[in-house]
């Protein structure tokens, strides 16, 4: 029997299931994988926003990650919402014992609806302790601006900032163009050896973009778990996200920003 690729997601729970752990698990299953989950925070959430959230204690996050990695055949890991410096340090300490598993980091800082999940100190610890261990980090324009201490204001900034982040962080960078203006959505991958790949698709007119970063990074991790190289894994994930956005536009749930439907 062909083995089922096992992917661990370390992220926040979204009660409305548009983003976070729920979006990750849907994506991983839709791509033929098996999702293990370590819940790093609990959010009360719907399409309109995040009325409340709480971090999970760092030791309990680390215990979930250890329990999974010590026993299950995890072939790739992704992280999403990590709720602070102590949580990031606790996760980094466990992952140091498993240095060969590919790791995709979605550097979640806040929600589009305005909730702030990770402080400036948290971003510094992420850059110092987790990103050098990562295979790939997947910032959008605002997140890349925070990581690079430099605002991205046009497409011309993307490649230089991507290169600067690769040099600074020590991992490949996928700079996502979903927040950018323009008719095309353009994501830029800069690999650790300095190669640049662009992934482009026509921008879909939809308000239902909640969870797109989660779906994309989970889909990349699922591809890496299946043994794809980085650029092909990003290519299939970009295509998968287009399908999810179309499905989310068709469902059109909630009064706010509805989910992109993975699957
Ligand atoms: O999309 C970022 C994100 C990740 N994880 C959780 C979230 C959000 C945004 O709202 O709620 C749990």
Structure description:
With 263 residues, this protein is of the alpha/beta class. It has one domain (6-249): Ribokinase (UDP-N-acetylmuramoyl-L-alanine:D-glutamate ligase), CATH 3.40.1190.20. Helix content is 40%, strand content 20%. It contains 8 helices and 9 strands. It has helices spanning 20-30, 58-69, 85-95, 120-130, 141-148, 155-169, 212-225, 230-251, and strands spanning 6-14, 34-44, 52-55, 74-79, 103-105, 136-137, 172-175, 184-190, 196-202. A 9-stranded mixed β-sheet has the order 3-2-1-4-5-6-7-8-9, with helices on both faces. Strand 2 and strand 3 form a beta hairpin. Helix 1 packs across helix 7 (212-225), helix 3 packs parallel to helix 4 (120-130) and helix 5 packs across helix 6. The longest helix has 22 residues, at 230-251. The radius of gyration is 17 Å and the shape is globular. The mean pLDDT is 96. 3-hydroxy-5-(hydroxymethyl)-2-methylisonicotinaldehyde binds next to strand 1 and helix 7.
How would you summarize what this structure contains?
This protein is an alpha/beta fold and 263 residues long. The protein has helices at 20-30, 58-69, 85-95, 120-130, 141-148, 155-169, 212-225, 230-251, and strands at 6-14, 34-44, 52-55, 74-79, 103-105, 136-137, 172-175, 184-190, 196-202.
